[in-house]
């Protein structure tokens, strides 16, 4: 299997994020790239550098205002006397029916849902390379590869069409899905990250050509809190094309795999032309977030079950998964499972 990644993604290094009113070390660290690369190599992947694809594939899912904000916010923020070295929102509109503001402070509130995704001097460059990694992963699938893996970092599934949050800026899985639609009109996105993929859900919520299915820790007391509940099923033409499968905290392999079967049955019924797997590895029993309890064998079984159920062209896009001794091993296990004949 080809694995795409660029070390230019490592430049983005926001050291802190605001959690529970306290500045903590940001767990979305560049070291994740090294551990995941080792995991991909151990799975037998060949490594490939992504190309610069410009804004075209990114603009399929993100708004022009949002792209301009992300590109220029850091420089504009720097004109504010005494401002921090990273753009962090301190005011947010409670609804989005007011005026689009001119001030970078207010635009930060408009385009950033929380304080976990600061914009630093290197953020723009890294998020572009993360998105282009997703584009070339989709390109591999478009040109005949049955499977390809994109080591995208920062992750993307919490980013909506015009809002960053949860360490995410560009929604790499959505960008891959939209890119695949050049050749494959019906795409399913299966999100197995510990957290609900609220950005992906928002982007496709009114559409029936992209099915979004997410298995995650119950958001009733877990990020992203406001979305990810089972009652959210899509709207308009998209009604019935969004499925959320929340799980109790600390759910382990057996119960998880039973829920995965429910997800796969729904995706089979949709009969997709191509599949995007939003691969968070933070459901691991050793992940610092501690939300679910999937073992390395469990990750292998998740890969096996997907491969057995959905033999369509598949782009695997890296989402979350934070530093632990088995982060890379979990990726190896998952990819090996996915390649099981
Ligand atoms: Zn996550």
Key features of this structure:
Arginase, Chain A; 35% helix; alpha/beta; two-stranded antiparallel sheet; binds zinc ion; 10 helices; 341 residues
Describe the structure.
There is one protein chain. This protein has 341 residues and is an alpha/beta fold. The protein has a single domain, classed as Arginase, Chain A (3-Layer(aba) Sandwich), CATH 3.40.800. Helices cover 35% and strands 14% of the residues. The protein has 10 helices and 10 strands. It has helices at 31-42, 56-59, 64-77, 104-111, 123-142, 172-180, 198-204, 253-270, 296-309, 327-338; strands at 2-4, 16-19, 22-25, 46-48, 147-150, 187-191, 210-217, 242-247, 274-279, 314-318. The strands form 2 sheets. Strands 4-1-5-10-9-6-7-8 form an 8-stranded parallel sheet, with helices on both faces. The longest helix has 20 residues, at 123-142. It starts with a strand and ends with a helix. Bound molecules: zinc ion. Zinc ion binds at residues 193-195, 280, 282, 320.
Low-confidence stretches: none
What integer value in Å does the Rg equal? 18 Å
CATH class value: Alpha Beta
What oligomeric state do the depicted chains represent? Answer: single chain
Describe the secondary structure blueprint for this structure.
Elements: E1 2-4, E2 16-19, E3 22-25, H1 31-42, E4 46-48, H2 56-59, H3 64-77, H4 104-111, H5 123-142, E5 147-150, H6 172-180, E6 187-191, H7 198-204, E7 210-217, E8 242-247, H8 253-270, E9 274-279, H9 296-309, E10 314-318, H10 327-338
Parallel strand pairs: 1-4, 1-5, 5-10, 6-7, 6-9, 7-8, 9-10
Antiparallel strand pairs: 2-3
Helix pairs in contact: 1-10, 3-4, 5-6, 8-9, 9-10
The structure holds zinc ion.
């Amino acid at each position: 299997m080809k694995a795409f990644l660029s070390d230019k993604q490592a430049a983005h290094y926001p050291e802190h994020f605001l959690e529970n009113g306290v500045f903590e070390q940001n767990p979305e660290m560049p070291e994740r790239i090294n551990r995941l690369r080792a995991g991909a190599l151990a799975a037998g992947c060949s490594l490939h550098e992504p190309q610069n694809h410009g804004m075209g594939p990114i603009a399929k899912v993100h708004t022009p205002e949002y792209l301009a904000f992300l590109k220029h916010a850091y420089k504009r923020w720097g004109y504010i006397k005494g401002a921090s070295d990273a753009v962090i929102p301190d005011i947010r509109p409670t609804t989005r029916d007011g005026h689009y503001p001119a001030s970078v402070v207010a635009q930060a509130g408009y385009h950033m849902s929380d304080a976990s995704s600061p914009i630093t001097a290197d953020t723009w460059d890294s998020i572009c390379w993360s998105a282009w990694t997703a584009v070339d992963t989709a390109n591999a699938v478009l040109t005949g590869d049955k499977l390809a893996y994109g080591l995208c970092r920062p992750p993307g599934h919490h980013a909506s069409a015009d809002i960053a949050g949860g360490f995410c800026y560009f929604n790499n899985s959505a960008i891959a899905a939209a890119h695949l639609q050049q050749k494959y009109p019906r795409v399913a996105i299966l999100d197995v990250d510990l957290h609900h993929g609220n950005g992906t859900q928002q982007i496709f919520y009114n559409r029936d050509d992209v099915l979004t299915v997410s298995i995650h820790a119950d958001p009733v007391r877990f990020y992203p809190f406001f979305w990810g509940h089972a009652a959210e099923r899509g709207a308009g033409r998209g009604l019935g094309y969004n499925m959320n499968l929340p799980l109790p905290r600390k759910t382990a392999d057996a119960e998880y795999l039973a829920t995965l079967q429910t997800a796969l049955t729904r995706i089979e019924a949709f009969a997709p032309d191509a599949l995007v797997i939003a691969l968070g590895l933070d459901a691991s029993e050793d992940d610092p977030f501690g939300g679910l309890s999937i073992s390395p064998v469990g990750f292998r079984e998740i890969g096996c079950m997907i491969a057995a159920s959905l033999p369509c062209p598949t782009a695997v896009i890296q989402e979350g998964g934070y530093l632990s001794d088995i982060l890379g091993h979990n990726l190896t296990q998952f990819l090996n499972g996915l390649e099981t004949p």
